[in-house]
Structures are given as structure tokens and as C-alpha cells.
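Quick question: what would this complex look like in 3D?
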Amino acid sequence: MGDKKIKNMEEFAAVSGISRPTLSKFFNDPSSVRASTRQRIEAALDCYDYRPNLYAINQNRRLTKNIGIIVPYLADPFFAEIARNIEEHILGTGYRPVLLGSHGSPEQEIENLENLRLLKPAGVLLAPLGRASDQARIATFCEEVPTVLFDASAGTSGDAFVGSNNDQSVGLIVDYLCRTGEPPAFFEMQTPTNPNAYKRRHAYLAAMERLNHTPHLIQAAGEGWEFEEIGFREGTRVVRDRNLPTNTILCSNDRLAIGFLSAAYEAGIRVGLDEDCSMRVAGHDDHPFSRYTCPTLTTVSQDYEAIARKSAEALMALIEAGQVPDSREVTLFDGRLVMRGSA
Amino acid sequence: MGDKKIKNMEEFAAVSGISRPTLSKFFNDPSSVRASTRQRIEAALDCYDYRPNLYAINQNRRLTKNIGIIVPYLADPFFAEIARNIEEHILGTGYRPVLLGSHGSPEQEIENLENLRLLKPAGVLLAPLGRASDQARIATFCEEVPTVLFDASAGTSGDAFVGSNNDQSVGLIVDYLCRTGEPPAFFEMQTPTNPNAYKRRHAYLAAMERLNHTPHLIQAAGEGWEFEEIGFREGTRVVRDRNLPTNTILCSNDRLAIGFLSAAYEAGIRVGLDEDCSMRVAGHDDHPFSRYTCPTLTTVSQDYEAIARKSAEALMALIEAGQVPDSREVTLFDGRLVMRGSA
DNA sequence: ATTTATTTTTTACGCGCGTAAAGTTTTAAT
DNA sequence: ATTAAAACTTTACGCGCGTAAAAAATAAAT
């Protein structure tokens, strides 16, 4: 590392013997200068502690090297994990990730978009809240900034969408549950905030019809992002009332399932595949915590890594193309069955 | 909201009839201009869509209105939650929070500090990794930027520290466990990454001595931040070997406890207070997920809100003072006993 | 060695705003 | 009404870098 402090690029040009415009090119893209000069610059950087002023750089550039990442809820390990993956991909391309969480609030989501706009980002990766989102303003934003939506869509906003194939994944777990026991009822939120929830509901209905079984929806009341709480509360009601046509429950997502399992445990109902178990519960997403539930949660995994990679790649492609694409690319990843103890 | 787009402050000065220097003052601090002019400006903002260029603003200011927040691991809901609280407090003061996660990596932590330095932040709130942190570089950073450490300390770096009173909180739960049954053994990581872990170990030893009980440490091997995994693996071994002097386990943190409970469940051991239970397990932190474990986890809560508020306040005080304080303020919050099903 | 293409240097201007200084207007106080 | 203080306007300069254009230097190709 360097020792002597350098004030600005002018000064660094003086001590390194490289002209300032060339240095400017180098700092914007090291590969844009001749290899020999690049080495000279890097050698100088070893002797002198200099990094260009971020604000001066971005003031004149129409587009910065910032990439915004917005997720609906950072306290949900699912999103934290996927955000982490995306961050890593972005860093690998020499861009600078800026992570923002919307805390489940549509106002915060818009606020985040506004703040990002001030950063003049090269592009944005957005996982919208879903139903609660201000679709119109998101659409406006997407027209101004290259944006890839992931996890959930918001209308047809965005130049690309990366998500999971709910038809396939829900079909997979319904198939599995039917093969290994009773057909499942579907446990979900009555008015889910996430558009994936609707897709999963329909996928469940379709899968049950395909298999010639009567579908059964259990719809929990409740708003917001406290899914475990909702799963627990309504799960308690479900196991108390005991008027289910089936003892196999497929939850719309793992967080609901975590709450449901907790409710079943409290009610003294054994969940799982053993002889003495009276109920089976499955989830969806392979949430980081689902391998530590009691019993461990059988679920369908979303391919976090693939979604993160593809989202980042799609955005980089957009940025490099430098123009709005002629068509909106949609990528859906298949889920993988994760057989654990609960079903 | 405004409709007409304004390019820069000069233009906005023209249409609003306010001089540019006054506008500059206003945008830096709305309360620094006369109430009547403030109203005129705000009225103009309603008609015209203008926000000052972030980069131009910060270029000349020696200190920006940015406040950096660094947590060791964003995928841990504990840190996600505390970060969210801090963000809210920062926003309330008119500053702009910038959240960064270190992904459990000391290199990333230093990288985050370096990146923050480029942002010329008014101050930084840092929850260091702990033992793995590059203490020297953190110390250097703290001398250059007003910094409040929270959750964990790093030597005596930072102008203030806000954390929890491990002596009190561990003493509290040890007391409780002893009053209601057997004295607990202490389940922890052998080489914990977090300095709190050492404090808790000592607090446990002290509490047991005070109560005239023989302490017993169960030290799990393992590195990194996959605490549930480590708790599960070593928990499995512990319940298999069954050579414990006690059937009450106090875990150094809730994430270890979550893994441990899962292990106990898998081993068919009932945990809790009921007649048919052969083991009690308690944790520490009141992790967001600990109310959904099976059984629900008895633990000591850390006062997230208080830690977040005090950290933010301490930093704002530092910033407003505008100088290094004569003494390093240390604030420790007491824990609250959270009695649930597991002990 | 000559030509040509590529890269670097020199020179110069501008981005949008912070901010200092001096002059003017408004407000508050007597 | 007079005076002093506070707030505002005018004018002007600078921050650190992007970037365009023309000239010079270097490298590659014949």
C-alpha cells in the first residue's frame, strides 16, 4: 500500500509521470490504456496513497458505475442471502453495488428509487414488494433507468425479469406429496403481498386438477411481512378446528411453514413421516432456516445462486447494450425438491 | 409533486426568485433560512421537480450528510433488524444512512471502511466482526472518522461503544435457570468470532461461582457464521454422548440454541418444562426467530431499539460536537428475561 | 525506413454546487 | 422613527474530475 498522501489526480499525474487524462481513462477502465502504461500507473499506486474523489468522478459522468439493488425486506434471510449473492456478482464486474431494503413499505420502496435516481446508477436490480408496490412509479423509473426485476414482477415493468418457475416448482412438490400420501391442502395468505403467492395458488390448483384431486385452500388473514406470526396464528386455528379434509399441508412459502410447524408443535401434533405423526407439512423456497425447523422442513428450493447470477448478467448485458431491448427477457428457474423430515 | 424539470440550482433560483446561495443554505439545512423564505422555496418545490445533484453537493463539502452503517452479517436477522432500527433513527435526523454488510469477512469489513471513506461520511456506526477484525486498520479509521461501535467492541477503537451488559444478562438467565431447576452448562463455540462470546463465558463462570455451582463449558468446534449449523452438529454430539453433568443448557446465543433445539428434536429428546421433558435449553439475544422454535426459546432479550437509538444518538452528538471527545463513552443495556417454552 | 494506426500529452473548458465577501433588504428592538 | 441585527442578493472563485480537440509520441505493419 501507499504511504504518501496525494490530494488529487493532478498531483498524482505529477508524481507518476502520467498525464491526467490518461489517468482518468485508467481509473474508469484499467484495460482501456496500454499495458505498459497500466503497469506504470499501478506501480505508482503502490507508492502513493491515492484514490479518485468519488463525487468529482460522478459529477460529470452521465452514468456512474453504481448499481442499485432493492429488496422488499432485508430482515428476511431469503432476501439477505440473494442480495449477498448479487452483490458479489456486481463486484466482480467492477461496478459498485448499493443495497437498499424497503422494509415492506411501498413508500420506502419509492423513496429508495428516488434516492437511487440521485446516484445516477448505471442500472438497478429490483425485487418489488409486489401487490403493494406503486406500479405506476416503478414503471416510470424503469423507463429512465435500465432495470432488471427479480423474484417478483410488477406488471410488465423492467427490461428483464428473473424469477422462479412456480408452475414447475409447485407442481413438483404437489406431485411428491400425492405420491407419498394424501393430496395436500394449500396454506396461504388470503391477500398475499407477493405476486408469487398468486402464481403458486394457481399452480397448486392446476396441479391438483391435473392429478384429479379436489383442491383445498386454507387462507390466513393478516397483512404485512410477519409471515411466521401469521403462519403460527392461523396454523393454531387450523389444528384446533381440525376440520381439514386432509392432513397434508403445503404452505405457500417456508416462512408460513415455520410458523405453522411451531403451531403444530405447541398443539402437541407430531409432524412428519413417522408412524406416530398425524400431519405432513411442506414449504416452498428452501429458506435458510428451514433446515433447522422441527421437524426439518421438506420444501422446494429456489436456486438463489442462479437467480442472483442471471439477474446480474441480464443487467450487465442491458448496460453494455446501452439501449432499451426490443423485448423483455423473462427467465424462470426450476425448483428442486428438498426432502426433509416434515413431509 | 413538481412537473417541470429543472436542470440545476441556478435555474431553480431563476424560477423560484430566490438567490442560489440562499437555496444552497436551504438544501443543506432548511431551518437555517427565514421561515418566510423557506415557505417560498417549498412552494416552488411543489411546482418544479428539482433536487440538487448529490455529487456536486458533496464534492466541495468537507463532510457529507452520509452516515455509514456496517454490520458483520446482514443475513443474520439480528443484525438486519438492528440495522433497520438505526437507519430509521438516522433518517429522522436528516442524514442519509448507507448500509454495508461484511459477510463475515475481515477483508470485506476493511473494504467497506475504505469505500465509506470515499463517501466522506459525517460519521460511522460500526458493528465489527470481532476477533477476526483487522483491529489496527479499524483503529486508524476511527481516528479519521467519528465512529461509534456497537454490539461488539474492537479493542478500544471508536469514540463511543454501545452494547449490552453481558454480566447482567447472563447473570439473569443463569439465576433463573438455577431457581427453576438444575444449574446450566454453557454451550458455546470454542473459538468464537465475537468478543461478546468471551464476555458471556466469563459472565457465566462468574454467575455460577456466585451461586456456588460448578460451571461446565461445552465448547463446539467450528468457524464462521453458520451458528445454527454448528449448534446442530455439536448439539447432536452432546445429546448422543449423554455425558453431561446437567440437563440444562444455556447457549451463548440464540442461533446456536436454534441449531441445538433442532438436534435435540431429531434425537427424539423432548425439551422444555413439561413432565415428559428431559432437557432444558435457553439462549441469549431474543433473536427474531426464537419465538418460532420448537419449543419456543427461553432467552434474554437484547434491547434492539435502545441499542439502535443510543448508537445513533451518540454518533449525532459526536458529529455536532465536531471534535474528538475527551473520554470514550460506554453504554451497556440490560437484558430482559424472556420466558418461553424451552426452559 | 516509411507509412499507418494507436496511444498519450497538452491545452482548455465545463459540470453543479459550496462558499466567501461586500452590498442591500428585511426584521426586530429600542 | 431610528438603529442594530439578521437574512438575503450579487458577484466571484474554486473543487476535482470528465472530456473534447489538436499535437506529439509510440507501436505495429509494410
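Answer marked as accepted. Residues 18-22, 25, 33-34, 37, 56, 59-60 of chain A lie near DNA strand C (CB under 10 Å from a C1').
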